[in-house]
Amino acid sequence: VTLDALYGLIVFSGLFFDVVIYTIWLKRRTPWSIIWGGVSGGMPALAGRALGTGQIEWVGVALALAVLFWIPTHIMTFSLRYREDYRQAGVPTFPAAYGERATRLIIAISSVLAALMVAAAAFGIGLTIGYLRLMAVLSVGLLLLAIRSSTTPSEKLNFGLFKYASLYMLSVMLLFIFV
C-alpha cells in the first residue's frame, strides 16, 4: 500500500482470495476451489502490471487470466498423480468428483486457454518476433503434452505435463520480465 494504493488493493485481494476464500472456505468443500485459488494466483501478475502502468488494463488482466487458466493444468495433473492421498486426506478433487477422463479434458482446455492468454499478453507488451517464436514453441509443447495426456493417458505423461507446465509458466513470465 505504501508503494501504490491500487497495487496494495490488488495484493490484498489476492491474499484474501487465497487465505479466506480458497483455503479456509472452499478447499475441503469443493474441487472447484482451485479456480478461486487460481484467482489469487493471478493477482501478483496483475498487481505488478498495475504498479508498472498505474492502472488495471487488459494486458495485466490477460496475465492474470493466463495464470488462472494455467492453475487447473498444474493442480489437476498433481491431483491425478496423488488422487489416493487426496482421498484419504478428505480433499475433494476433480478426478474424484468428475472422473479421470473429464479431468484430463479440463486440463487440455485450460492449457489452450492459458496459452491463448499468454499470447495475448505477449502481443500486448510488444514482444519481438524472436521472443514470440520462442513463446510459440513453449506453448505448442504445453498443448501437445496436454492433448496427448488427454487422448492417451499415462502416469508418466501426466507427471511430465505437471513438470512441463511449471517450467512453461516460469519461462513465459521470465520472457515478459526480461523483454
Considering the chains and any ligands shown, give keywords for the structure:
single chain, mainly alpha, flat
Describe this protein's structure:
- This protein is mainly α and 179 residues long.
- Helices cover 85% and strands 0% of the residues.
- It contains 8 helices and no strands.
- α2 runs antiparallel to α3 and α6 packs antiparallel against α7.
Helical residue percent?
A: over 70%
Coarse morphology: flat
Task: Report the biggest beta sheet as strand number plus sense, adding barrel if it closes.
Answer: none
End-to-end C-alpha gap: 27 Å
The total of helices stands at 8
Gyration radius from CA atoms, angstroms: 17 Å
Query: Roughly what is the average pLDDT, rounded to an integer?
Result: 95
Structural class: mainly alpha
% residues in beta strands: under 5%
Report low-confidence residues grouped into runs of 5 or more. Answer: none
Total E-strand runs: 0
Q: What is the H-and-E element order?
A: HHHHHHHH
Produce a short descriptive summary.
This protein is mostly helical and 179 residues long. The protein has helices at residues 5-26, 33-53, 58-81, 83-89, 94-98, 100-125, 129-151, 155-178. The model has no long low-confidence stretch (mean pLDDT 95).
Give the secondary structure arrangement, pairings included.
Elements: H1 5-26, H2 33-53, H3 58-81, H4 83-89, H5 94-98, H6 100-125, H7 129-151, H8 155-178
Helix pairs in contact: 1-2, 2-3, 3-6, 3-8, 6-7, 7-8
